[in-house]
UniProtKB/TrEMBL annotation:
One GO term of the biological process aspect: propionate metabolic process, methylcitrate cycle
One GO molecular-function entry: 2 iron, 2 sulfur cluster binding
Keyword Cell cycle: no
Protein known as: 2-methylcitrate dehydratase
Protein species of origin: Lophiostoma macrostomum CBS 122681
Domain spans labelled MmgE/PrpD C-terminal: 349-523
Family as reported in the entry's similarity comment: Belongs to the PrpD family.
Highest rank taxon of the organism: Eukaryota
A UniProt-annotated Pfam family: MmgE_PrpD_C
Keyword terms: Lyase
GO cellular component terms attached to this protein's record: mitochondrion
């Protein structure tokens, strides 16, 4: 049964439970067959009185000798092994994602707090034929390499974004994908025991892996809100990376199901490190942690570890009952290449994505203020008409800004910084930065309020729009009220993709600059624009272009 069929059957099952007047845990479907005349079979669990002297016997229902995997897991594994990717739009977008994401990682290396968590566990360790970490001289095992690359990528919240019922950054998966491809390719070239069926990966193979990881993470996010049960979106990075890396390491479809099930049973991160009062830097390396666990789990399955067929649906102990309120996942569409084709780029500002259009609106308003001979000091108040997700995640009007993580997840701080300095860069978030120590930024921040527009929220979830709208209304101290400035789609949105490409390239070049000579920067930029040459390059040779000796 596919996951689509399961959605239909779950609804029927819940109806039967309510009609019987029992709780969801009292009656559990054992076998559900969509579009079949076979009656639905249920089993009623009989509660026994608790006693410390009870006889030792299982209260679990009999388990079939050969269990079928949950259809959600079967669908993922089948997609990885059996569905071709033939969308050139997806591959073209993936090339832009690759260079943009690597650039974001390089930019993060300029920050000491990021550098401090990178490198080998034992200082000075170099793994022969191991994963090389771009922008450094580290050569690590693929598990730690996945963490290093994943943490770099996500550190500044400047890589791509996907917004739906769940939020996330699908290019986080590059941490696991690049670490695995680089390690396997170097090892296979060196001879000896072959990995991943002896494959030497091309850049195009990595692009395909990115497309698939984006698709799994994004399709799961479309209808399923993990944040509403307190779980962080990096669970989807772990699952997507596990699925993709399984095939890269040479696992067959059955083993891929095993690996995916291990990712679901693995302890999932809580979102509390993204929210007051616990906002802190773990949010910047959480995706690296997910990449690390994904590669580690696949290696365990490669060495014979088994899977958990009903890890999602098992009564009481499965993911649905433990973590998801007993509700099965819902799916809007089958897996293909939709997510990569529609992914959002962060082009203009290193800021949580729900704020991007608000900051752009503030930048536009600055031009109007300048024409009027006014500045941020003349602003009395600002109202931001916005969507529900913005309010839930980054509306922190009166919360004290305690650290970098607070500031890059506060829409008021980001908008205020733009009004005061006519800029928003990663250097505006540290404690000792000009913006963080500005009394005007702090005063104005507390005079910026948010109010939800239900239509903006509706458009945010509309598959045909997926806009991230913000609209600012500025009131000046002399009583003047400026016309509302509305920005619905940020520069990196699909609707503005062509407009964004020159800016994405300029962003990549800026991020390369501090690390390499101008000649080498020009070489990397030119290579990134040459699809044929880039696609056919061995991935280890491409990574070598980013290594610093």
């Amino acid at each position: 049964m596919s996951a689509f069929s399961r959605n239909v059957c779950s609804t029927a099952s819940r109806t039967l439970r309510h009609r019987a007047g029992v709780s969801c845990r009292a009656v559990r479907p054992i076998a559900l067959r969509a579009a079949s005349s076979t009656p639905i079979t249920t089993r009623t669990a009989v509660a026994a009185p608790f006693s410390t002297m009870s006889s030792l016997k299982s209260a679990a229902p009999p388990v079939p000798s050969k269990r079928e995997f949950d259809p959600e897991i079967k669908d993922m594994a089948s997609y990885i092994h059996n569905t071709p990717i033939d969308s050139e739009l997806a591959f073209d977008t993936a090339r832009w994602i690759l260079i943009d994401t690597l650039g974001c990682g390089l930019k993060a290396l300029e920050f000491e707090q990021c550098r401090n968590i990178l490198g080998p566990v034992v200082e000075g360790t170099t793994v022969p034929n191991g994963t090389k970490v771009p922008g450094t001289n580290y050569q690590l095992d693929p598990v730690l390499g996945a963490f290093n690359i994943g943490a770099m990528i996500r550190w500044l919240d400047f890589n791509d974004c996907w917004l739906a019922a769940e939020w996330g950054h699908p290019s986080d998966n590059l941490g696991a994908i690049l670490a695995t491809a680089d390690w396997i390719s170097r090892t296979n070239k060196a001879g000896g025991k072959k990995l991943g069926n002896g494959k030497v990966f091309k850049v195009r193979d990595v692009l395909e892996a990115l497309i698939r990881a984006h698709e799994i993470q994004g399709c799961l996010a479309l209808e399923n809100s993990f944040n509403k049960v307190g779980l962080d979106h990096v669970v989807l990075v772990k699952v997507a990376s596990t699925a993709v890396v399984s095939k890269m390491m040479g696992l067959n479809e059955a083993q891929t199901r095993d690996a995916i099930s291990q990712a679901w049973v693995d302890g999932q991160s809580m979102r509390t490190y993204r929210h007051s009062p616990n906002t802190m830097s773990r949010k910047s390396w959480a995706a690296g942690d997910a990449c690390e666990k994904a590669v580690n789990l696949v290696l365990k399955v490669l060495r014979g570890e088994q899977g958990l067929p009903t890890v999602l649906s098992a009564p009481t102990w499965g993911f649905y009952d433990v973590n998801f309120g007993g509700k099965p996942f819902q799916f809007q569409r089958p897996y293909g290449s939709y997510v990569m084709e529609n992914v959002l780029f962060k082009v203009s500002y290193p800021a949580e994505f729900h704020s991007q259009t608000a900051v752009e609106a503030a930048e536009r308003l600055n031009k109007k203020l300048k024409a009027m001979g006014k500045t941020a000091e003349d602003i009395e108040s600002v109202v931001n008409r916005t969507h529900e997700a913005c309010i839930r995640i980054i509306d922190k009007q009166f919360k004290p800004m305690e650290n970098f993580a607070d500031r890059d997840h506060c829409v008021q701080y980001m908008v205020s910084t733009m009004f005061v300095f006519n800029r928003l860069t990663a250097n505006d978030y540290p404690d000792d930065s000009e913006a963080a120590t500005s009394q005007l930024v702090e005063s104005l921040r507390q005079r910026i309020s948010c109010v939800e527009d239900p239509q903006f929220t509706k458009d945010y979830h509309d598959p045909e729009k997926r806009t991230i709208s913000n609209a600012l209304t500025v009131k000046l101290k002399d009583g003047t009220v400026l016309d509302e400035e509305v920005v619905e789609a940020p520069l990196g949105h699909r609707l503005r993709r062509e407009e964004a490409k020159p800016e994405i390239l300029a962003k990549y070049k800026r991020h390369l600059g501090p690390h390499y000579s101008s000649e080498h920067v020009d070489k990397l930029v030119a290579l990134g624009q040459n699809a044929n040459e880039l696609d056919n390059m061995d991935i280890d040779e491409y990574v070598d272009l980013y290594v610093k000796n």
